Fold each of these.
Amino acid sequence: MTLAGLITYSGALAIAAAIPGPGVTALVARALGSGFRSSLFMALGLILGDLTYLTAVVLGLALVAQTFGTVFLVIKWAGVAYLCWLAWAFWTTGIAPADIEARRGSGGFVSSFMAGLMVTLGNPKTMIFYLALTPTLVDLAKITPTDYGMLALSTIVVLLVVLVPYLVLAANARALLKSPRALRALNRTAASFMVGAAAVIATRH
């Protein structure tokens, strides 16, 4: 794999990741509702989902779009259902002034991680991106472990660089909200983001 190809791949991935979609909206909602640490684990889940698709393509599974049918649908609708459940939780209970700091350090990291993974695996845009772009930049018949390692490392670095600023800004905005009225608006904003992400995933084909 050439340096030019790696740079092109990284640039295309950065642009695709920066465009607000299901992953970004779900991440922002999580950061608004639960703070930085929980949303960071969700970001790691999103990244693992991307690495899953990248690995599938590199292993030569170019037919994944055809053979992934039933499993893909199960993951997709599980992700939609989970996002809807989170939206309902934020809308009906959410967070109160007394537990802002408590929730910043609370658990749920595994839940956040799995939510991020499911959002990415249930997003057809992510699968199509890797199926369309990677074979044009890499000769999958001649790819080496080093080539794969470079692609995987670039994927992790690019996604962290793009996603972390989103969650930092959202988490900091959350810290500024103290009044019950502001927190109610926060909860409902987070719920709306979750519903939006679920709707986008559900309507994508």
Amino acid sequence: MKHSAIAALLGTAVLATALAGPVSAEIRAHTLKVSNGAAEDHPVSAGVKGMSACLEEKSGGKMKLRGFYNGELGNDAEATQSVRSGSIEMVVTGAAAIGGIEPAMNTFELPFLFASNEEVDAIMTGPYFDHVAAKMPEHGLVMLSIWENGFRNATNSKLPITRVEDFSGLNFRVMQNPIFLDTFRRLGANPVPMAFSEVFTALETKAVDGQENPLPLILASRFHEVQKYLTLTRHAYSPTPVLINKAKWDSLNGEEQALMTECAGIGREQQIARSRAAVDEATEELKAGGMEVSELSAEELDKLRELVAPVYETALPSVGEENFDLMMAELNKLRGN
């Protein structure tokens, strides 16, 4: 899928090379390392493998990706910095890993931002994507697409959460992110910022009572082995931007850049399809693994949203007013407001 922000970077090179002859004559050999923090059985691998297969097919075997998983090349923040410096070509990372360098990414951390998958898909492939992508080159990055980690849900080892009051006093591991810290404090929980690599041990030793993540990642990380209760809160959504080093991007010719953009879009389609299917599969497997699954009633969810609503105001300095206004304008348009 082509995005205007990426197309703008291509300039006139695409036209020039298109006129010069067949695509295959212009493409050179490239094997690009791609880092990700999740396990290889996580849905993100479907995107990496789908994008790589697309590149190989359309380049006559000259271009492909080499995926590295489980944070083998560093956690999200470390791998993102490595891509900026050029020691790794690409990363599929969390929005939080970029929020410190680009405030437009912090918008995605806001609680209850999206009401549906349809809203997610419209934002991730529409004007807000272009807005964020246009900012990335100044940080030494080019954003090819945005895939997903998905909607986040809460687990804990203490009790089934069926009311907002049940969050009170629970020690929740959260990402090292001010918006998430503020969100869980307002719920009455004790948020504990912690690197993802430390979470399983912290849950196992009861250093923390619970954590929150998308269902496929909860399953892939085996959190059900050390957590009893799962509550389907869908309190936040986590995108996974696909980034390439700007200098490496600039070293590609127009045909190669066009192919990377096209295949990142195809990779997105395959990754999203696998991610959405994996949510239902993970729910059933987590139940089979012994977890008790509950949902908050509509009334309790309304209370939860009301409690965390002030986060939008306190987060505004880190999000940026322009970014926030554009995001909300796009969402209001989608909702017919």
